[in-house]
Amino acid sequence: MTRVARRARIYAVVRRIPRGRVATYGQIAALAGLRGQARLVGYALAALDVDSDVPWHRVVNARGAISLPADGHSALMQRARLVAEGIAFRDGRISLDRWQWAGPRASRRPIE
DNA sequence: GCAATGACGCTCT
DNA sequence: CAGAGCGCCATTG
């Protein structure tokens, strides 16, 4: 599997995250067939342009926090976009129990 | 090619 | 719940 192919798969998964929901790097990696390689997801997102069509801001780490230098412009924008989608921050973190995306399967076939 | 680095995560203290 | 340790692996110097 080539670099570009991996990145394409990662972006494809990220694009499926619904508005108002978030996913973790590890979750994206697993859904992209790259289990255990969360770092690659971060690496792929780092290569994106801030105004990309890929909703990179909906990806946070396993603790529900933003994995970017807290003082950076990108981090502020990510936080602003998430808040704009109705997601609340508590002590710099998001409640994953509340806003984590259940995944593509659940999206196609909701539990209720 | 070796070593360091980094948008990560899981386990154990 | 915060930290440390360790695993992972593409990129870079």
3D architecture notes:
- By secondary structure, this protein is mainly α.
- It is 45% helix and 4% strand.
- It is built from six helices and two strands; from the N terminus they run H-E-H-H-E-H-H-H.
- The chain has helices at 3-15, 25-31, 38-46, 73-84, 96-99, 104-108; strands at 23-24, 59-60.
- Strands 1-2 form a two-stranded parallel ribbon.
- Helix 2 (25-31) crosses helix 3.
- It is globular and about 40 Å long.
- The relative contact order is 0.18.
- The model has no long low-confidence stretch (mean pLDDT 91).
- The structure holds a DNA duplex (13 and 13 nucleotides).
Number of strands: 2
Number of helices: 6
Order of helices and strands: HEHHEHHH
Distance between the termini: 37 Å
Low-confidence stretches: none
Strand content: under 5%
Question: Radius of gyration over alpha carbons?
Answer: 13 Å
Helix content: 40-55%
Q: How do the strands line up in the largest sheet? A: 1-2
Shape: globular
What about the largest sheet? Answer: 2 strands, parallel
Structural class: mainly alpha
Mean pLDDT: 91
Summarize the structure.
This protein is mainly α and 112 residues long.
Topology, element by element:
Layout: H1 3-15, E1 23-24, H2 25-31, H3 38-46, E2 59-60, H4 73-84, H5 96-99, H6 104-108
Parallel strand pairs: 1-2
The protein binds a DNA duplex (13 and 13 nucleotides) through helix 2, helix 3, strand 2 and helix 4.
